[in-house]
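Before relying on records like the one below, remember that each one covers exactly one chain. Contacts with other chains, cofactors or solvent are not represented anywhere in the record.
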Amino acid sequence: MIRPSGPAGFAGWLSNPDRIPESSCSSVGSRAVTRAVLDGVVLADSDDVRVVEGIAYFPTDSVDMEYLADSPTTSRCFWKGKARYWHVVGPGGSSPNAAFAYVHPWPLARRLVTGRIAFWQDVEILDD
């Protein structure tokens, strides 16, 4: 377990963007085209996907927001901050809370997840 020490303590450790756990980010800036797909419908399509803790984060402008419906669900991650969720709704089916984003991520995660929407649960992530 990491136990930050010194005068700044844990708050100082979290505010240092160079402390991003290397094992948490398995790939940054993929060159292959990656798609998020639910029941054959492409929800997002980009060659700039970041995979953090096994979850694909797409640039917001690559996501077809037509298929996302606001959800009241939120969650918190100790190093990324508060996440907001969307239900993914398409012509062939839906998946509750299958898209999320850290709108105001904490300093440790800013360079990885700012301006990105992640997909999980029933949404397939496919690489070309």
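The helical segments are 9-14, 110-113.
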